[in-house]
Amino acid sequence: MRGEYGHGDRACRTFGGAAYGWAMRRSAFGWIGWLAWGLLSPASAQPQSIAEIRRLPPEVVATNPAVTLTANVIFVAVWKNRTEIAVHDGTAGIYTFVRNGGATKLKLGDELHLTGTVQAGMGPPCLSVDSFTFTGGYGLPDAKVTDFAALENGSMDSQFVEIEGIVRDVQYDPAVAPPSSILTLQMKGGRAEVFAALKPAAGLEKLVDSVVRVRAVPFHYFNQSRQPFGFRLMTCDDSQIEVFKNAPQPPFEMPVTRVEQLLRYRPVEASAHRVRVQGVVTLHWPGEFFYLQDGKVGILVKSRRMEPLKPGDRVDVAAFASISGYSAILEDADFRKVGRDGSLAAVHLSLHDLVAGGEDARLVTTEGVLESVSEKNGRAVLMVRAGPLIVPAEIPVGMTALPTMIPGSRVKLTGVCQVELGSRRKFAAVYRPESARLLLRSIEDVKVVEQASWWTVRRLAYALSAMLVVLIIAMIWASGLQSRNQRLKKEILARQEAEAEVRRREEERKILATDLHDSLEQSLTGVALQLQAAGKQSDNEHLELAKRLLKHSREEVHRAVRDLREPFDGELDLRAALAGLIKRSSAGSTVDFSLDLPERLPEIAGHLGPQLLHLAQEGITNALKHADAASIRIGLKESGEQVVLEIEDDGRGFDVADRPGPADGHFGLQGMKERAARLQGTISIDSKADDGTRIRIVLPKNP
After folding, report:
1. Dist. CA 621–CA 668, nearest whole Å
2. What does the alpha-carbon distance between residue 6 and residue 9 come to, in Å, rounded to a whole number?
3. Sign of torsion, CA 135 138 140 141?
4. CA nearest 209: which of 336, 331, 337, 338?
5. pLDDT > 90: what percent of the chain?
6. 8 A C-beta contact, residue 277 and residue 290
7. Rounded to whole angstroms, what are the CA distances from 642 to 65, 318, 460, 605?
8. Is there a contact between 62 and 120 (Cβ–Cβ < 8 Å)?
9. For residues 167 and 334, what is the distance between their CA atoms, to the nearest angstrom?
């Protein structure tokens, strides 16, 4: 057993020879230590207790000093004609290897008189026993109550300890040495495995979800630098496993918890016991995991059970909840099928929606352009692209089972979204993942929507070259026919362009002068006054307001310039303009926009259309910046000789009587009022806290 991690037959026996030479080569002082111990020390200098043995310096351990001890067995394992034990003399414990047989009758607690030598190990020293006798005594030392941190650092190696934790899983493994029932315990601070060298009939599987106290001996794994990198606890008697608190309830009699409620923040410590959830299976890889969906929320369930599940199976699951990566998962799960549910459908999302994180573990369908197909660990991997974003999709089949797909084809995939955290951890209230992948169930989840075009880059280059030659020939032929009229056409075109440029510049100057006068000049005047007041006072209130005024001025200038750049020729297509405004406003936003227009728009004066567009734009901007809304509606209708524009949102709302205004650096609503007044119209605002906002603007058709 210990030979696997540094203390076994090989370790103890080789350190007497090869390892002794290793110690001597490591330091010339080893020879001095050997001479000092073997020639100069009296017989009484040999270690008198296990605690003294553990404190021996390496150069002394390398001399293999002889010891005689009386100690009790705290662990014993016999398999394949091997007997390995750990003993404790009341001062400390030590791993012991019995060279000569005769130890097969040892039992836990037996008191022995031992004669042997100290051997070097990868961690603490061990004891190679040449002979032992039973003293007839029996007993166990008091187990030292230990936490997970003390077990991790290696100092408790081969000691008799007591731990407490919740049993998460029990599995019998005949392949380990010795064959054992393995209990997975959730301790405070970490998860530990207890190897109970007992037969499967010990009934330990009934302990799952119980709080137990286990008295055992920890054996550590050490690397070549003598650093501990793991441990397992060993016991050989079921009397050393004590149930401190039974499982709260039988697993499938617990109340059902909705998946969306698992491990949500609460101001109290979460329970480490099992939870029970129900849902519909969306994907199953037997022996590894399956995905379950409860309503719109999915979750990864890890289970070693090989019983196959099919998508659509409704299951009842008892498992332990924990956070792994971005979302909660269920581990060490037990489950039972309770029926079928064929109503669950995949939600259609874009690849960018998958990376957003909100659809982790959910059954989705998406489309993209196939970049490549490869194979990893016997599973086909499709790389699918949407713009600069590339998402891998993994199928539990080899590449040969896939239908013919040419890179560049448009494919539709159905599978479970698995969000993956990136390496860059940004400080933010809500952390956004950086990548995702799709886990597909079968090749039926891959549909080729559109095969890649026959036109490859090379073929397209050849065709363009041929077309270019034809075009050059045609241009030469046409130029001969048009040479007589070319000069006249150029002159006419130059005059027309010059006149159009003059008119365009004059119109732009008029518009820019009006917008800057109504917005920037007023704001800059306010800034000047605030800065003048700031020079007379000691606080920074006016300076802060000046900053907000400057910010608003920049936004007004930006909007004026943007409006100047937008083409406008004659009558404005108000329907298309409003639709374009909503399209620009919704870009990169999760807000749901709606446009409510009559089949036939009201007949209005030509200059009123751009003004209505400005008012709608300001209303949308205010809602996006301040309302935290989920939806925004823009409506336009006719009311007699008037036209009514409505902007509604379902956001946080505000107190109309106490709303912030220009004195607080907020100009949006004030600007809308002034614009409506210039058009001989009225504006009304209906808003309450947490009840959204409705802005209603009434203008004459021909102001």
Report:
1. 8
2. 9
3. negative
4. 331
5. 41
6. no
7. 108, 65, 57, 11
8. yes
9. 14
Tokens of residue 170, six digits? 């029990």
pLDDT at 612 over 70: yes
* DSSP, residue by residue, 135-203: EEEE--PPPEE--HHHHHTSTTTT--EEEEEEEEEEEEETTSSS-EEEEEEEETTEEEEEEE---GGG-
Residues 6+ apart with CB under 8 A from 663: 545
Residue with tokens 């900053």: 547
**Cα torsion 541, 542, 544, 548: sign:** positive
SS3 call for 547: helix
User: How many C-beta atoms surround the C-beta of residue 430 within 10 A?
Assistant: 5
Model confidence pLDDT, tens digit, residues 653-702? 888 777 776 666 566 777 788 888 888 899 999 988 888 999 999 999 88
The structure tokens 């886990």 sit at 439
Q: Looking at residue 61, what DSSP letter applies?
A: H
Sequence letter at residue 18: A
Q: What's the pTM value of the predicted model, to 2 decimals? A: 0.57
Phi/psi of residue 563, each to 5°?
-65, -35
What pLDDT is recorded for position 429?
A: 55
Which pair of tokens denotes residue 127? 């004891």
DSSP characters for 469-510? HHHHHHHHHHHHHHHHHHHHHHHHHHHHHHHHHHHHHHHHHH
Q: Which residues, including other chains, have CB under 8 Å from residue 675's CB and lie 6 or more apart?
A: 611, 614, 615, 618
Determine the pLDDT at residue 550: 63
Q: Helices 608-622 & 574-586, crossing angle to 10 degrees?
A: 20
109 in the Ramachandran plot: left (φ > 0), alpha (ψ -120 to 50) or beta?
left
Distances (CA, A) of 688 to 620, 652, 654, 657: 18, 8, 5, 10
- What single string gives the DSSP state of each residue in 303-321? --------TTEEEEEEEEE
Q: In whole angstroms, give the CA distance from residue 405 to residue 450.
A: 10
Tell me the C-alpha distance between 495 and 115, whole Å: 117
CA distance 330 to 257: 12
Instruction: Annotate 607-643 with DSSP letters as a single string.
Output: THHHHHHHHHHHHHHHIIIII--SEEEEEEEEETTEE
At which residue do the structure tokens 């704001």 appear? 523
The answer to whether the peptide bond before residue 178 is cis (omega within 30 degrees of 0) is: yes
Task: Give backbone dihedrals phi and psi of 523, rounded to 5 degrees, phi first.
Answer: -65, -45
The residue length of the chain stands at 703
DSSP 76-102: EEEETTEEEEEEE-SS-EEEEEESSS-
Residue 179 in tokens: 């064959």
pLDDT in tens, 268-294: 877 889 999 999 999 998 888 999 999
* Phi then psi dihedrals of residue 351, to 5 deg: -65, -35
